[in-house]
Specification:
- The chain is mostly helical.
- The chain has one domain.
- It is built from four helices and no strands.
- The longest helix is centred in the N-terminal third of the chain and has 42 residues.
- The N and C termini lie far apart (about 95 Å).
- Keywords: Signal.
- This is Viral A-type inclusion protein.
């Protein structure tokens, strides 16, 4: 008689791993979205640097050179890439399967990482240009 309540719990216990795996998949999707949006937020915090560096390049001696022009275009490209990503990103519907959401977030992560690479290289190049030209002009 005492075994009967435990036998009634077996189907419930058998279905528990399925519930846990769905929950963990959902958590994976949420984590993927948070990581992607954190990368976006990190880049947004640097958006003003693109503008500041473009203005600094414009004010530096030699701003009419090909090198200066390339740096400005690279900064503009980084800005445009960010705006393009933001305009194209659409949060997937909660009704979409977790697998499809994970795929979408993975593809968006690749895109925002690509934007981040463009950001980093254009910012670093512009900073180096401003420092180098600024140092050269003060000598």
């Amino acid at each position: 008689m005492k075994k009967l309540p435990y036998l009634l719990l077996l189907p419930l216990l058998a279905s528990l791993p399925a519930c846990l795996s769905l929950q963990s998949d959902e958590q994976k999707a949420e984590a993927a979205e948070k990581a992607m949006l954190a990368r976006h937020d990190e880049l947004m915090a640097e958006m003003d640097q693109l503008t500041i560096l473009r203005q600094q390049i414009q004010k530096t001696p030699g701003s009419d050179t090909v090198a200066a022009s390339r740096r400005r275009r690279a900064l503009l490209s980084a800005d445009a890439a960010m705006m393009d990503w933001m305009h194209r990103y659409r949060k997937p519907a909660d009704t979409m399967t977790v697998a499809r959401r994970l795929d979408y977030f993975a593809s968006q992560q690749k895109k925002i990482d690509s934007v981040a690479t463009l950001f980093r290289t254009s910012l670093d190049s512009a900073r180096l240009f401003v420092q180098t030209v600024g140092t050269t002009s003060t000598q």
